[in-house]
Specification:
The chain is built from 14 helices and eight strands. It is of the alpha+beta class. A hairpin with a 2-residue loop joins strand 2 and strand 3.
């Protein structure tokens, strides 16, 4: 598990534990013994400890915006209104009034974003290839929130695109395949069976209370078979491939990265174990990777279905054909170098060569005329 995701889970677990403890141990009134001391302790936890932990685990390590601290402060205010003694809880009454206009503003923004993103998805419906890649071309330079929402909505057509073999029959061929657990047939079969059993169990459990709700919940769970199948086919057939001037790396369907070839600084095939150090994102099963791509500038890895982007300086992978992937990158680099050398041949020099009647091969390096 990557460091950013690990610390997100740590914060979420600690926050749930702190808020749950507040509901359990905070007194209903300050008049009981130790009521003030307990309230002060939980006030420090709500408004000092949790914001500091959020800043460390989410904002600093995840490189998020500082204004997002308002989210944890507003959540703590709501929890204080619901769990603190009545003498203190009344001071947080404002949060119940503020939430109505705040929710209205947020819903308006979300609606605007969804309309613009759905329009972009509609315009991209005729494009070939992964819908996430197409939508990222349009929203790649947008703010993180809009881009994440766009990728999340693009997961729906992307799931159908990969789950149905006919839809992806013209997909670009893979250069290498990452050794992923999700690429095995038994893993797909196990997840599919678990999904069906979970849907049946939910129907049996909810049906005595409401049959309509039971059908809706069971159908929603069964719909996960599309994502499970897409996850299997992406992992098995479309792990690493070239699209134009970019290398697409799919860590199953849950995360992917687009890397331009001119951003790859170094390729290491079968590197020593010391190169697999902390901070290098790792794809594939195995203790040590057989290929590492190091970048000139940090590249974005879109994890968590696009909701958890993070900047990485290198990607280490366990693939079936590391030499073929390295050869592809080296060939692209040679092509780019050849183009640069051709561009350095100025028009005046070309004209001079033509006027003197020299043969091109006599004055231009052979590799430039090939």
């Amino acid at each position: 598990m990557r460091q950013v995701v690990k610390f997100r889970l740590i914060f979420l677990s600690v926050a749930i534990a702190c808020y749950t403890a507040g509901f359990q141990f905070l007194p209903e009134t300050l008049e009981i013994s130790n009521g003030q001391e307990i309230s002060i302790a939980f006030a420090l936890i709500y408004f000092v400890f949790l914001p500091l932990l959020y800043w460390l685990c989410i904002i600093k390590l995840g490189k998020q915006k500082l204004w997002k601290l308002l989210l944890i402060f507003s959540l703590s205010c709501l929890m204080a209104r619901l769990s603190f003694p009545v003498e203190i809880a009344s001071y947080f009454e404002f949060i119940t009034w503020l939430r109505i206009p705040l929710i209205a503003v947020l819903l308006g923004l979300e609606l605007f974003l969804m309309v613009s993103i759905i329009k972009a998805l509609w315009h991209a419906r005729s494009l070939k290839g992964d819908p996430r890649i197409n939508i990222l071309r349009q929203f790649g330079q947008e703010d993180e929130r809009k881009r994440s929402l766009a990728l999340a909505l693009a997961m729906e057509p992307a799931s159908w695109f990969y789950a149905i073999p006919r839809f992806s029959r013209n997909h670009l061929p893979s250069t290498a395949h990452i050794n992923l657990l999700s690429a095995s047939r038994w893993h797909w079969l196990l997840l599919a069976c678990t999904t069906v059993l979970l849907a049946g169990a939910s129907y049996v459990a909810i049906q005595p209370w409401s049959e309509i709700t039971a059908v809706i919940v069971a159908s929603f769970i069964l719909y996960g078979l599309i994502l499970i199948t897409a996850n299997y086919r992406v992992s098995r057939h479309f792990s690493v491939y070239r699209q134009g001037d970019q290398l697409i790396i799919n860590n199953s369907v849950w995360g992917f990265s687009l890397v331009k070839f001119d951003q790859i600084q170094r390729v290491m095939v079968n590197p020593p174990p010391c190169e697999n150090r902390t901070g290098v994102i790792h794809f594939g099963q195995g203790e040590s990777s057989n290929i590492i791509l190091k970048f000139k500038h940090p590249q974005t890895y879109f994890g968590g279905l696009g909701w958890l982007p993070e900047e990485v300086k290198a990607i280490a992978m366990v693939v079936d054909t590391p030499e073929a992937l390295a050869d592809l990158i080296f060939d692209i680099s040679d092509e780019r170098e050849l183009e640069v050398r051709r561009a350095e041949l100025t028009p005046s020099r070309k004209e001079s060569i033509s006027q003197q009647g020299f043969e091109a091969d006599a004055d231009i390096p052979a590799e430039l005329t090939s």
